[in-house]
Amino acid sequence: MDKIYKIPQKILVIRLSSIGDIILTTPLLRNLKRTYPEAEIDFVVKKKFQEILYGNPNISNIIPFDDKNGLSELRRIKKAIVQKKYDWLLDIHKNLRSVYLRTCSGAKKRFRYKKEMIRRFLLIRFKLNYYQTIVPIYRRYMIELESFGIHDDAKGLDIYVDPIAKERVTGRWGSFFEKFPLLVGLVPGAGYATKRWLPEGFARVGERLMRENGAGIILFGGPDDLALHEEILNRMNGEALALAGKTSLQESIAAMTFCTCIISNDTGLMHVAVALKKKLVAIFGATTEELGFFPCAKEQIILQNNGLSCRPCTHIGSDGCPKAHFKCMEEISAEDVYRAATKLSTKGN
After folding, report:
1. Which residues contact 334 (CB under 8 A, 6 or more apart)?
2. Is the dihedral of CA 19, 21, 22, 23 positive or negative?
């Protein structure tokens, strides 16, 4: 094997979106740096998600892609890639944009993430399970690099909290954080409807945690979750803090550091909780473990409806239940979620 492939000096990683997928690349980045400590590692990511990578010591340069500028922005980045003359280029996204950046990039060695599309299709469409073992996505990212000495060090996901963001969050809501002996975070949003547990379920669990456990409740989410947070607040009796539309991404991460336990749908902030080493109750509906996105927290309880033959119905979620019954979520009770949260929150305290 040519030496230049064994000891790369310049490595480019491409993962444009989204929050969870980007966090899932952090073990790859850490193990690249561990194996090749002198290498310069750059990362191409959508501008709106770059905060996820702030402070990561395994990245030399973040290359933000402003998708509002379309093809002209891609061309600009492509030109910079060609000029940089990378030794390795790792396409962890494998969509049309990343393929464009990868093709004719001048990189001496190019790697592509294999999405196992045939196995995934057979499982979702015909419920034929040909996954011999369940391999999390973050480990799949490293499979093609094993022959180059890149192996998982089993240290999990990474995220780094901006101290300035933490100061801002503490300044605004520090009195709320200090008021309660237990803070529980709720993440009721998700990109697709079939990945969202019922708002009334989150409200019932949050209210009961406040009433019976003296907990403070923090709702996490982005601007798109404003109406959802408002609905949950209206259904609850008690004091809760809803952060949708009030924080930057780094500020949300900083606020989550104050929580003992997070109750979350399958969404990017779930992986943030894992990276922060938080206790986690994860609620899964349309998707299953074989698809690779189940969390890997040290202390976690995963709630799912294993009795349904229609799961998984999709690999990323959809806008509605194909069977029009939504049993995968509706049959997960608030009692089950409350018990799971209470078990984790009181464990070791």
Report:
1. 200, 201, 204, 205, 208
2. positive
Tell me how far apart the alpha carbons of residues 325 and 309 are, in angstroms, rounded to a whole number: 13
Quote the strand ranges of 244-299, DSSP E. 261-265, 279-283
Domain boundaries, given as residue ranges, for the chain = 3-148, 163-346
Q: How far does Cα 293 stand from its chain's mean position?
A: 9
Q: Where are the alpha helices (DSSP H) in the chain?
A: 3-6, 19-23, 26-35, 70-84, 96-102, 117-126, 137-140, 163-179, 199-213, 226-235, 249-256, 268-275, 327-330, 334-346
- Give the model confidence (pLDDT) of 227-279 as tens digits: 999 999 999 998 899 999 999 999 999 999 999 999 999 999 999 999 999 99
Residue 58 CA to residue 2 CA, distance in Å, equals 25
**Would you say the CATH fold of 163-346 matches that of 3-148?**
yes
Environment class of 309 (CB within 10 Å of its CB; exposed 0-12, middle 13-18, buried 19+): exposed
Tokens of 233: 């607040």
DSSP 109-152: EEEE----HHHHHHHHHH-----SS---HHHHTTGGGGGGT---
Residues with Cβ within 8 Å of 42's Cβ and at least 6 positions away in sequence, in order, are 10, 11, 12, 13, 59, 60, 61, 62, 63, 84, 86
Superfamily of domain 3-148: Glycogen Phosphorylase B; (3.40.50.2000)
- The closest alpha carbon to 161, from 75, 51, 260, belongs to 51
User: Residue 229 corresponds to which tokens in the numbers above?
Assistant: 């947070």
Q: Which two tokens stand for residue 303?
A: 């709630």
CATH class name, domain 163-346: alpha beta
Please write the tens of the pLDDT for every residue from 127-171. 999 999 999 999 999 998 999 999 999 999 999 999 999 999 999
> What is the spatial order of strands in the sheet that 40-46 belongs to?
61-65, 40-46, 10-14, 88-91, 109-112
Cα 335 to chain centroid, rounded: 26
Token pair for 136: 């999390």
